[in-house]
Amino acid sequence: MPTSSSVATRRGFVTGACALLLPRFGLAARTVEVRALISADGARVTFDPIGLRIEPGDTVRWIQVRGYHSVSAYHPANDSHELRIPTAAPPWNSGVLLGQYPAKGSTFEHTFTVAGVYDYFCQPHEAAGMVGRIVVGAPGDGPGTQPFGYAPARHWREVPEAARKIFPSIESIMQRGVVPAAAAS
Ligand SMILES: [Cu+2]
User: Fold this and answer.
1) How far does residue 60's CA lie from ligand 1's centre (Å)?
2) Distance from the CA of 112 to the center of ligand 1, in angstroms?
3) Nearest-CA neighbor of 167 among 125, 138, 134?
4) Mean pLDDT of 138-160
5) Which of 32, 40, 88, 170 has its CA 20 to 30 A from that of 119?
6) What is the pTM (predicted TM-score) of this model?
7) 66 near 94, Cβ under 8 Å?
8) Centroid of ligand 1 to alpha carbon of 38 (angstroms)
């Protein structure tokens, strides 16, 4: 009898703690998947979806399905790339992922807590236009909303021409929520 009563008490405590956590984001935080791909002939490299709208607290999980890719924020900490994520947000860089899904080392996750626009690229394929854009909550007016090359005095590495054409517009991301790779350009 004392044992079962103690278990019941613990369960009651755990339930209470979960109830307290949930209202922080209104809804439970989600994990959304993005695939990193190369076509069979190697001619086309892409993230899919290429545009995504999520809420603060959500996590994006990139899955390396074919080819070898990285998931790297547009941020000066990543090899002097242009700052194109919110100023208050930490940069991230997966490095080139080493496995093919579902093998170990084929996925990378990042949790987004700061609202705004985030541009990111694949290190091996940036020049070929392998980039993506995520809007967390509302776009605001941070670096990711600025035109490419907005701060020439910083001497950041330029976003390659092929990549500039690939980013879906912030408007289309806000309207559609998910922008598949094929519909982006
Ligand atoms: Cu790539």
Assistant:
1) 17
2) 21
3) 134
4) 97
5) 40
6) 0.84
7) no
8) 7
Residue carrying the six token digits 């290190």:
123
| pLDDT of 42 | 87
Domain count, the chain: 1
In a domain, 15, yes or no: no
CA dist., res. 96 & res. 118, Å (int): 19
Q: Is position 158 within any domain?
A: yes
Whether 23 is covered by a domain: the verdict is no
| pLDDT tens sequence across 70-92 | 999 999 999 999 999 999 999 99
90-146 pLDDT, tens digit per residue, is 999 999 999 999 999 999 999 999 999 999 999 999 999 999 999 999 999 999 999
Q: Give residue 67 CA to ligand 1 midpoint distance, Å.
A: 7
The CATH number that applies at residue 135 is 2.60.40.420
Domain that holds residue 73: 29-183
Show the tokens assigned to 1: 């009898």
- Reading the block at residue 71, the tokens are 């998931």
